[in-house]
Design goal:
With 221 residues, the chain is mainly alpha-helical. The protein contains ten helices and no strands. Helix 4 runs parallel beside helix 6 and helix 5 packs antiparallel against helix 6.
């Protein structure tokens, strides 16, 4: 195992377990989750990391979708040498977890391995649209709904304040404008995430995971 990957593996195993499953399949999915974690913890070669990735992927194919699962899947694929699929899994993890330090570290490792450049960086769009990548999709959706409520509260304050004059109508208008702006920003961001996740969920089963096996002794890579 590469020395620089060990902290990533440790971080993956410290994440919370897979999300709630239906009661009739909860025990089976919990067993599959624990088995995948155990396989990942014991792995030492690309093929073994790939086996752990396949176990995680079975949960994804069964309909489990959360940040912990995709983070561990991406980590296992990264250690197996499948940088492209690792990056795709980590992007899905980011949609649920937000851009945590562990997710960013793994994404940089995957991008560096995929591009063959150790100093590869993440796209500049992640800095410009920091709220989109930095916050989990669920949080952005909640913020959009809260901002939408603020918009209507502002309109109500403006309407009620007209009878009293002064600054009340202006304050209500500013409140409504602020709510509308944030509702559009976070609403569009959450909508994009939902569409991307819907697309990936539909096409995920088409992905073929591979392991980068080391060259045989006496042969050139």
């Amino acid at each position: 195992m590469k020395a620089g990957i060990v902290p990533i593996l440790a971080a993956a195993l410290l994440l919370p377990p897979a999300g709630r499953a239906r009661e009739d399949g909860e025990v089976e999915r919990r067993f599959a989750w624990d088995r995948a974690n155990l396989t990942l913890a014991r792995a030492d070669r690309p093929a073994e990391f790939l086996a752990a990735a396949q176990d995680y992927n079975e949960l994804a194919r069964a309909g489990v979708a959360n940040g912990a699962l995709f983070f561990n899947l991406g980590t296992a694929l990264l250690l197996a040498g499948d940088a492209a699929n690792a990056e795709a899994a980590l992007v899905r993890a980011e949609r649920y977890l937000g851009s945590t330090a562990d997710v960013r570290t793994n994404l940089r490792q995957a991008a560096a391995a995929r591009q063959g450049h150790p100093d590869a960086s993440l796209p500049w769009t992640r800095m410009v649209f920091f709220w989109h990548y930095g916050l989990p999709g669920r949080t952005r959706l909640q913020l959009a709904l809260s901002a939408w409520a603020l918009f209507w509260i502002g309109l109500l304050v403006r309407r009620l304040g007209r009878t009293r004059g002064g600054r009340v109508p202006a304050a209500g208008g500013a409140l409504a404008g602020l709510g509308l702006v944030f509702a559009l920003v976070f609403g569009c961001s959450a909508a994009v995430t939902c569409l991307q996740e819907w697309h990936d969920a539909r096409t995920w089963s088409e992905r073929v995971f591979v392991a980068a096996e080391p060259p045989a002794p006496g042969r050139q890579p």
